[in-house]
Amino acid sequence: MFQNIPKVKIGIVAVSRDCFPESLSVNRRKALVEAYRTKYDGADIYECPICIVESEIHMQQALEDVKKADCNALVVYLGNFGPEISETLLAKHFDGPKMFVAAAEESGDSLIGGRGDAYCGMLNASYNLKLRNIHAYIPEYPVGTADECADMIHEFLPVARAVVGLGSLKIISFGPRPTNFLACNAPIKQLYNLGVEIEENSELDLFEAFHKHKDDARIPEVVADMEKELGAGNQKPEILPKLAQYELTLLDWIEEHKGYREYVCIAGKCWPAFQTQFGFVPCYVNSRLTGRGIPVSCEVDIYGALSEFIGTCVSEDAVTLLDINNTVPADMYEESIKGKFNYTQKDTFMGFHCGNTCSSKLSACSMKYQMIMARTLPEEVTQGTLEGDIIPGDITFFRLQSTADAKLRAYVAQGEVLPVATKSFGSIGVFAIPQMGRFYRHVLIEGNYPHHGAVAFGHFGRSLYEVFKLIGVDPEEIGFNQPKEMRYKTENPFE
Questions:
Q1: In degrees, to the nearest 5, what angle opens at C-alpha 66 toward C-alphas 61 and 71?
Q2: How far apart are CA 250 and CA 248, in angstroms?
Q3: Alpha helices in 20-101 (DSSP H)
């Protein structure tokens, strides 16, 4: 697993109403823990031996116990009806993501002495959480057997990992956004509301640090690693020493500037002055850091970098940031997609960026010059981009964004990269998302989202949706690709 994302340890605390048998909650907790350890990694969880029985003292004892066990996430387990005050106080005072889940009844033969009524208790728990303004994760159906609750806790794991990560994240930015890129405007108030710190720097600061790394003794080792990664795709070997120098500059900057924060991502300015002053483009280096779990966004897209980090935490894998870029031409659709895949042409588009996608997410790669930039600049200063078609397979397109008036908004859409040759340049793929045309109009355009979207490699929509809810995004502000039968608020109802 990447070192730049947290390891989550979930403390499981059982609760009991004093007029119900405490043993019911305790035994059900033990069965839950056993079920989890049988199915999943037992290191993920900690069984708190203290059962909270309608007591604030028990609450304090349980709180101290899970803290002592280094738990950074919490499950409040209603083994029976549960004590609504003390259980929500536990959630209030626990500093980290928390989940509430309840036990189902096991047998029709035990509905007299062994009935727990946790189904009822969850209602009171949710009411009290709202009274205290506590954001807690509650599964879609939060009542189950030991096996089912174990599955729910495991589904909570990536959600908790993202929330914990945000609480210890620093975003390091270099430079203002490029001219005419108002879409990358980034009101920072919501970053602080999320617990994220930001360090804003000038490109000159980075330029100075880069020059201080000239003749760094580590450069040959990094060059050798680049050569190994690129293989036959190393089309511009002469630029590797400068790229290695730049990579070392960024890695050293991270270590010297992350301060008290544990995790870092970068939002960098990659044009227009970067090429002429540094003498290359940073795309390949950005891709290498992202491949190690340190997301680097292009064009000082701060919320793009933030989105990438969330995706990295959820997926435990590299992500990328792409332009929602261009339509698939009709002849290409007819030749390669129609009749082979169940998508209309409007369901498809091409996701592209210059070359920031890590090599492991490309079918094949070549390190070349950046064609768009070379239209206005000497080719030799545009070298350093990573080109290749993105690997086919399931993807999730998503983004967390602050509006200009500091309102949080997000979208999530699942789809796939099709095994279709792009016939183009850059890091690029042919994407298909069900009902993409409607999603494009009524979520992306209507929601005033910028052109960048984060891409996770796999279907993680369920987890990402819960992350956004848990960090405070109004569910009304979380867009998704709605099925045709489900009309958008702004969608014209007439054909």
A1: 165
A2: 5
A3: 22-39, 56-68, 84-93
What's the longest Cα–Cα distance across the chain?
A: 82
Q: Cα–Cα distance between 52 and 57 in angstroms, integer?
A: 8
Q: Are 299 and 182 in contact (CB under 8 A)?
A: no
Domains in the chain, please, with CATH? 10-166 (3.40.50.10940), 169-480 (no CATH)
Nearest to 155 by CA among 394, 459, 438, 416: 459
CB count within 10 Å of CB 80 equals 26
- In 10 A of CB 121, how many CB atoms? 26
How far is it, in rounded angstroms, from Cα 39 to Cα 153?
A: 11
Q: What is the mean pLDDT of each run of 10 residues along the chain (495 residues)?
A: 91 93 94 98 97 91 97 97 93 97 91 89 96 96 97 98 98 80 77 95 93 96 96 92 97 96 92 84 94 92 96 97 96 97 98 92 91 81 91 98 90 98 94 97 94 96 98 96 94 87
**Tokens coding 423:** 């016939």
**198: exposed, middle or buried (C-beta count within 10 Å: 0-12, 13-18, 19+)?**
middle
What angle in degrees, to the nearest 10, is found between the helix axes of 302-315 and 461-470? 120
CA 296 – CA 249 distance, rounded (Å): 14
The closest alpha carbon to 77, from 107, 113, 118, belongs to 118
What angle do helix axes 146-166 and 22-39 make, rounded to 10 degrees?
A: 70
